[in-house]
Amino acid sequence: MILLLTGTPGTGKTTISRLLSDKLNARLVAVNQLVDQKHLYTGLDPDKHYKIVDIQALIQEMDEAAQNYRDSEDWLILEGHLSHYYQPADLVVVLRASPPILEERLKNRKWKPEKVKENLEAEALDICAWEAGDIHGALAQEVDTTHKMPQDVVKTIIEIIRGERTSPLGGVNFLDQMDL
Ligand code: ADP
Ligand code: MN
């Protein structure tokens, strides 16, 4: 079984994936680490704010990691804001967090103001959720973490896995919290 955990930077993917992998006894692959370890980038963007990831090479590496999990009851979690580019998956969870909360978290990373703003806008415009839905259809669901403790987010995802709850895309609207 393959779970893709995606979302705008700062929405809690790394935090949640660690807790969730414990609960599910899952193998956890952090996609950012994969990119670094296997040098899956073609260079730096002109402002040197981030690496330009070689998406095709990344998909190939994710596919390799997924080999033993596609027809297995064991879970693999691919965690990262590019993980939703991989398919096939059994479930795609897009983590969401309101722009003011994201802003606080991303400022803590000492990111440049433009980079923070870019990501807040991406969250307000549902970019990640939209892409995940475009690629995975109804397999993609979203969980608003805004007023949830990490343990509660994990609980929600486990309920989705068990089919006890659905949380379809489109239920989150952060547009009114942004001056675009
Ligand atoms: P991502 O991997 O998506 O960039 P992180 O897991 O690194 O996000 O989380 C970013 C920051 O937000 C961390 O400091 C983390 O402790 C905090 N955080 C994540 N999820 C929650 C949550 N549900 N409630 C409160 N803080 C959280
Ligand atoms: Mn992370």
Plain-language structure description:
The chain is of the alpha/beta class and 180 residues long. It has one domain: Rossmann fold, CATH 3.40.50.300. The chain is built from seven helices and seven strands; from the N terminus they run E-H-E-H-E-E-H-E-E-H-H-H-E-H. A five-stranded parallel sheet has the order 2-5-1-6-7, with helices on both faces. Strands 3-4 form a two-stranded antiparallel ribbon. Strand 3 and strand 4 form a beta hairpin. Helix 4 packs antiparallel against helix 5. The radius of gyration is 16 Å and the shape is globular. The mean pLDDT is 95. Bound molecules: adenosine-5'-diphosphate and manganese (II) ion. The site of manganese (II) ion has 2 residues, from helix 1. Manganese (II) ion binds next to helix 1.
Major β-sheet strand ordering: 2-5-1-6-7
| CATH class wording | Alpha Beta
Spell the H/E element sequence.
EHEHEEHEEHHHEH
**Tally of DSSP β-strands:** 7
Under CATH, the homologous superfamily reads: P-loop containing nucleotide triphosphate hydrolases
Query: Are any ligands bound, and if so which?
Result: adenosine-5'-diphosphate, manganese (II) ion
Mean pLDDT reading: 95
Low-confidence stretches: none
Q: What does the overall shape look like? A: globular
Helix proportion range: 40-55%
User: Largest sheet, described in full?
Assistant: 5 strands, parallel
